[in-house]
Amino acid sequence: MEPELKNFTDNVDAWIKQIRKEFTKISDLPSVVTENIDNTQHNYELIYELKDEIEELKQEINALKLIQIISLKKDKEVQQKKIN
């Protein structure tokens, strides 16, 4: 085989290997995209759950504040009665 033909054949083989490698990457892409979509959806679900929990905590904090205010008013009334 002439050196030029051998060189050409080697180059073609290298190109084919490169093309196959690139095609494999492209064929793997849909599974990666699907996984990312699923992960993103899961993250959104977690975010919405956390938002709901935060709202519940805010309501509980407001309830505790009201209880504390009522307790302080009662304590103040008791102290006023003791003074009088």
Looking at this protein, list some descriptive labels:
rod-shaped; 84 residues; mainly alpha
Walk me through the structure:
- With 84 residues, the protein is mainly α.
- The protein contains 1 helix and no strands.
- It is rod-shaped.
- The model has no long low-confidence stretch (mean pLDDT 89).
Order of helices and strands: H
How is the main sheet built?
none
Counting DSSP H or I runs of 4 or more residues, the number of helices is: 1
Mean of the pLDDT scores? 89
| End-to-end CA span | 119 Å
Number of DSSP strand runs: 0
Shape: rod-shaped
The portion of residues assigned to helices is over 70%
Radius of gyration using CA atoms only: 36 Å
Low-pLDDT parts are none
Structural class: mainly alpha
- Strand fraction equals under 5%
Identify the quaternary structure here.
single chain
Can you lay out the helices and strands and say which pair or pack?
Layout: H1 3-83
Nutshell version of this structure?
The chain is mainly α and 84 residues long. 96% of the residues lie in helices and 0% in strands.
